[in-house]
Amino acid sequence: MISNTAIDNLKQKSRVGVFVANTVLAIIVFVVATGTLSPFGTEQGLWLLAAVTYWLFTLVTTPFFTPPKDALANAIATILILAPVSLVSVKHFTIVLSILYWVAIGISLVVVILSLVAIFKRSDGQQSPVGIITYQLSNKLGRGEILFTMVVLISSLGFYQDKIDTALLIMGFWLFMVVIKPVELTLQIYKLFSTALIIEEKDVVGSILRVDDPNIVKVNLIDTETSWEHGKVYVSQLSNNKIVHILPLFTQVQNEGVVGTGLLCEYSDENNKEILFGNVYASMNSELSKELVKTLSGEDKTKEIAGLVVENSSIGNIRFQVVRGLNLEEGMVVFCKVQGKKVYYQILDAKTDEENFQTSPYGMHIVSTSQLGSFDEEHGFQKFAWLPEMNQPVFLVDKDDVLEQKMEKGNFTVGKIPSTSFEVPIDLNNLVEYHAAILGVTGTGKTELVLDVIKNALSEEVKVFCVDFTGEYAPRLADSKPQPLRLSEEKIEELEEVLQAVAVGEYGAKKERATLQEFLKTIESDVEKQVDDFLMSEENNLGIFELSEITNTRATLRITEMYLSSIMRWARENRKARRIMIVLEEAHTIIPEVYSAGFDADTQWVVGRIGQIALQGRKYGVGLLIVSQRTALVSKTILSQCNTYFTYGLVDKTSLDYLGGVYSPEHVKAIPNLRTREFLASGKAIKSERPLLVRVDFDQAKLDASKALDTTYEEIRNSRKDNKKEDMPEDF
Asked: What phi and psi, each to the nearest 5 degrees, are found at residue 341?
C-alpha cells in the first residue's frame, strides 16, 4: 500500500500523468464490463464517474483544496452523482442498497455541514472546540476513499446483478487502485531508482514539495532526524531549471513525514549537471551558510536569521515568523535590507499563530515590531518610508554591534536598547528648552532617571529648581551642594492657620481673605529674595524646595505657586540670561486635574496659575520636568505641552488612554509589560524620530545610595532610648 505522503511527494505534472493513466485503466475496465464507451445515461457508469472524480480531487486539485475544503468537494460530488440514481429497477439486495444509498447521502450532507462550520470558524480566526471538532470530523468522514467507495458499491452491486463476475471485477479493480495505487507506486519506484543513480558526492535529503513566491520552498524530507539543520546549506533545481541554494529555517510534521521550510538564495554554478530536478541535496561546503547570510544581510560578519516577514506588515510595524528554536524577548532589535538600506525594528509584542498547510496545522510565533528606522550618526534613528518584501529574511542584531554616534555638547546617555550595545543619548538643550515628563508607577526607576538628568543639567551650568515632597533629592544630590529654599516654620504654621480661617469663615470670608492677602505680601519679599539669590549665585546651581512638613494641600500649592511665580518674574526680567529647569516631583499634587480633585475656586486659581507659569516658561528659558506616578491625576493641559516623554510601567486605563495620543497603539500595549528600569523614550530630546524601548543597566551604587535613606527598626529603637534618657532626671 502506498501512503498519502508518497502521493504528496509527486509534482503537479506527475499527478496529472497518474490521473490520466488511472482514468485510462478505468475506462478499459468499463468497456470490458459493459461493451460501451460512454458512462453517461446508465447507472452502470456510476462507478466510473466516481473513480474519475476521486482521482481528479486526490491527484490534480489537491494543491488547491486545503482541509476541510477537500472534504466539502468530495461530499458535494458524491451527492451530485447519487442524486439522479433510482433503485426501482434493482431486483436483488434492494433494502441493503437503499440503506447504503441513504447512508451515503446522509454522510455527505453531514460532511457538507461540518466542513462549512469548520471553514467559517477558521476564517474568523477562532480556535473554539466546535471549530476543532468539526475540522477533524469533516476530514475523517469526507475522505474520498469512504464516500466514493459507497458509490462504487451501489453501482456494482445494484446494476451488475446479472453479471456477478463483472461486479466482482469492478469492486476488485477499485480496491486495487485505491489501496495499492499501482500507477503511483510504479512512479515512486522509478524515482527511487533514479535517485540511487546519482553520484555519491551528492547527499539527497528530500524533494521539493512547492515554492511560495517569493523565495520560500517546502521540502519533503527523507531523514527527519538530521536532514534539515541550521548552519547547513542545500542545493536544488527548480521547475524553471534554475539551480538555487536553500537555507533551512523550520520543520513541521505532515502525516507520516516531515516538511522543511527553506529560504531560496542565488546559486553560483548554474551549469552543474549533477543536480536532478526536484531533488534537494546537502552542500559539502561547510562555510557556505555564513557567506550566504553575509550576502543577504549585507554585513561583514555573520548574522543570525530571526525569521521571515509575513502578511499584514506595514511601513511602521512589520511582523515576522520566528525561526524555530530562537530565543527572543521584548525590546530586542532586528533589521532588514530595504531598498539597499539597513532598517532597524524593535520587538514590542508576539503571539502564537497557525498555518494550515495540507492536513496538519503548523504552530508558530509571530512577532510584532515597531520601526526604528535607518541610522544616522548625527541624528540617530530616522524614519524610513518603505517596508521589506514578503518572506524577506529578518536578522537579529548582535549584542556586540555598536552604532557610532556623534555626541555633541549637552548630550548624555540614559540607557541602552535591550540586548544590544546601542546607547540612547538625549539632548539636554532640547530637554530644558522644551518641557518633558517622566511617568510611571512606584519602583520602576523614575527617580534614578530624574537624578541623572539633574546631574547632567548641573554639569552644563543649568539652574535646577526641584520641588520635592519625597525628601530624597537633597541627600542623593549632596555632592552638588543643594541650596534649600523654604519658609520658616513659624510662617508656614501661620499660613496654614490663615488658610484654615478662610476655609471655615462666614459666607464670603471677606475679613479672612483680606488677612490672607496681607500675610502673602509679607512673605512674598522673602520668597523673591531667596529666588534672586539662588539664580544669581555662581556657586549653587541646585535649589531644592521641600514641603514635606506641610499637611495642608492648599498651603502647599500656595507656597509652590509663589516660588514658581518668582522664578518666572526673574526670567522675564532677565530673558534667557540663565537656563532654568523646574523639576516637579509628585506632579499630581502640584498640577492636578483640578476639576476632578474637589478643590475650591481659590485653589483652582492657584493650580491654574502654576499651569500658566509652566506653559509660558519656555519663551523665557524656563523648562519643566514633570515627574509623576499617577498620570491620570496630572493636568492634561500641561502634559500636552511636553515635547519629550519617558514612560515607565503603567497599568491604569486613564493613563494608557492618554498616552495613546503620544505613542502608537503597539507601544501603548507594551507599557504594562515594561520591567523595572525599562521605559519608552519619545520626543524632541531623544535622538530618534520614533519611540525607543530603553533599558538601564543595574547599578549597585545607585541601589546602595537609595537604601542608605531607609530607616531601620534598630535605628528607631535606639533613637527612642536616647530620647528617654534625655527626659530622665539627673538623680533618677
From this structure: -115, 150
366 bridge partner residues: 321, 351
pLDDT single digits (tens) 1-45: 454 544 555 666 778 888 888 889 888 988 888 878 777 767 788
205 shares a domain with 173: no
Please, which residues have CB within 8 angstroms of residue 223's CB and are 6 or more apart in sequence?
205
Predicted pLDDT at 122 = 67
Query: Which of 293, 312, 338 is the C-terminal boundary of a domain?
Result: 293
CATH at 560: 3.40.50.300
Residues 37 and 122 in one domain: yes
Mark whether 459 and 545 lie in a shared domain: yes
**pLDDT at 194 > cutoff 60:** no
- Give residue 498's pLDDT band: very low, low, confident or very high (50, 70, 90): confident
Domain span at residue 37?
4-187
Q: How many CA atoms lie within 13 A of 225 on its CB side?
A: 0
Say if 416 falls within a structural domain: no
Residues 160 and 98 in one domain: yes
Residues 6+ apart with CB under 8 A from 458: 464, 480, 541, 542
| pTM score of the predicted model | 0.69
Return the bridge partners of 604, or none.
none
Beta strands 580-584; 622-628: pairing state: parallel
CATH code assigned at 261: 2.40.10
Name the nearest CA neighbour of 689 among 400, 397, 385, 388. 385
Q: What is the identity of the amino acid at 436?
A: A
| Residue 166 pLDDT > 80 | yes
427 falls within a domain: no
Q: How far apart are CA 647 and CA 441, in angstroms?
A: 10
Is the pLDDT assigned to residue 629 strictly greater than 80? yes
CA distance 403 to 702: 27
359 inside domain: no
List Cβ neighbours of 602 (8 Å cut-off, separation of 6 or more): 502, 554
